[in-house]
């Protein structure tokens, strides 16, 4: 009898947990999956079309896996145990294979960095051709605007073992109908260049790479004043488990450093709503924040973030980019009147309307447009200019 009662209580507890997870998924979904450093899956709107093509059902499955209570805890516990074992057994292998790519449980390592394999030009040329054609259409249609393109070279652009460059950036720039002085690049010519500018467990640039990019962007955008200077040397913020440090590599970490800056006063609007700031640099640098991630520190991939410095004598800048620009948008905003940072992947989901380029630049009195990202940005359909 007692055993039946215990089983009933256990089964009831599991049922309540599942029901709570369902209720949270439907009525109180969390926005961010901090474990995997991405926006949490949400249930898609139920329509006849989404039901018939199965996309609604798929969204429910994905949302439940993200939203159910303790799901991140379960994943984190499993990942940490398995990853610590992997880290221990791989250490002697990595020490014996310096300057070589090593595949460990499906994860590619080069020295102490988690990396991605380089592409070939043949793989990426068709998508770069399509994006160049798309950009050129808007360059021609909006000759009243000053367009600029900044390309970040990274691990996917260079074979670290052979030193062979893929040539994707050169190929892409050759196809853009822009003057040479309207394009620039964060050059990576060796693994040493890469490791000096990028995080070891995350695909984003580090404080040094981001600051170099910012200073080059100030020059590219023809800003008539010097870049903001850091207030002292790099500050040790904490331990980072980067975007590549998930699953079987979740025990791999690094020390995250950042610069302090004296930003001018500016009002921030996040997806149409007033915000205290973009990102949490002040909180992390003062030791008042936790869950350290690249996005948590610099700011997430919002649909639209506006920075208003209330200096109408200066120009207005539109930045169309990906997560790399999160580290530099506030710095760039320091030199303009209004700066609009738009992530085309998230504009419609967060703003509730399509991004119409021509209407947008006219409505916001834009004079300069910066297109910034790595090879992936310049290949992805989601970053195609439309409207």
Describe this structure in words.
The chain has 387 residues and is of the alpha/beta class. It folds into 3 domains: 68 residues, no CATH class; 36 residues, no CATH class; 263 residues, no CATH class. Helix content is 39%, strand content 17%. It is built from 14 helices and 15 strands. The longest helix is centred in the first third of the chain and has 26 residues. It is globular and about 60 Å long. The mean pLDDT is 87.
Summarize the structure.
The chain is α/β, with parallel strands linked by helices and 387 residues long. It is 39% helix and 17% strand.
Outline: globular
Q: Give the helix level as a range of percent.
A: 25-40%
Query: Stretches where pLDDT falls below 50 for ≥5 residues?
Result: none
Radius of gyration: 23 Å
**What is the number of independent domains?**
3
Strands of the widest sheet, in order across it, are: 7-6-15-13-14-12-10-11
How many strands appear in the DSSP assignment? 15
Oligomer: single chain
**Major beta sheet, specifics?**
8 strands, mixed
What is the overall number of helices? 14
- Mean pLDDT score: 87
Strand content: 15-25%
Topology as a string of helices (H) and strands (E):
HEEHHHEEEHEHEHHEEEEHHEEHEHHEH
Structural class: alpha/beta
Q: What's the N-to-C terminus distance?
A: 69 Å
């Amino acid at each position: 009898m007692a055993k039946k009662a215990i089983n009933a209580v256990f089964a009831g507890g599991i049922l309540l947990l599942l029901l709570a997870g369902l209720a949270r998924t439907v009525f109180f979904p969390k926005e961010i999956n901090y474990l995997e450093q991405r926006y949490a899956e949400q249930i898609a709107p139920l329509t006849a079309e989404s039901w018939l093509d199965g996309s609604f059902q798929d969204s429910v499955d994905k949302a439940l896996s993200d939203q159910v209570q303790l799901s991140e805890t379960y994943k984190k516990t499993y990942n940490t145990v398995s990853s610590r074992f992997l880290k221990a057994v791989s250490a002697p292998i990595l020490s014996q294979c310096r300057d070589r790519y090593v595949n460990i449980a499906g994860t590619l390592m080069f020295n102490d960095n988690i990396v991605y394999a380089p592409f070939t030009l043949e793989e990426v040329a068709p998508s770069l051709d399509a994006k160049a054609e798309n950009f050129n259409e808007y360059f021609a249609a909006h000759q009243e605007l000053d367009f600029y393109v900044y390309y970040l070279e990274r691990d996917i652009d260079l074979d670290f073992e052979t030193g062979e460059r893929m040539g994707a950036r050169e190929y892409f720039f050759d196809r853009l109908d822009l003057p040479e002085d309207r394009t620039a690049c964060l050059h990576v010519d060796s693994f040493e260049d890469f490791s000096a500018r990028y995080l070891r467990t995350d695909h984003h640039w580090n404080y040094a790479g981001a600051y170099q990019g910012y200073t080059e962007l100030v020059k590219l955008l023809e800003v008539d004043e010097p870049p903001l200077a850091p207030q002292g040397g790099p500050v040790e913020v904490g331990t980072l488990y980067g975007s590549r440090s998930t699953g079987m590599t979740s025990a791999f970490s690094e020390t995250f450093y950042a610069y302090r800056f004296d930003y001018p006063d500016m009002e921030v609007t996040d997806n149409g709503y007033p915000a205290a700031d973009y990102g949490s640099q002040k909180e992390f640098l003062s030791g008042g924040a936790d869950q350290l991630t690249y996005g948590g520190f610099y700011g997430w991939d919002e649909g639209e973030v506006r920075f208003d410095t209330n200096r109408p004598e200066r120009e207005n800048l539109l930045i169309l980019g990906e997560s790399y620009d999160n580290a530099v948008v506030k710095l760039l905003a320091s030199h303009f009147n209004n700066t609009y940072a738009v992530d085309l992947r998230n504009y419609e989901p967060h703003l509730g309307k399509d991004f119409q380029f021509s209407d947008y630049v006219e409505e916001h009195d834009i004079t300069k447009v910066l297109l910034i990202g790595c090879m992936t940005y310049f290949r992805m359909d989601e970053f195609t200019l439309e409207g």
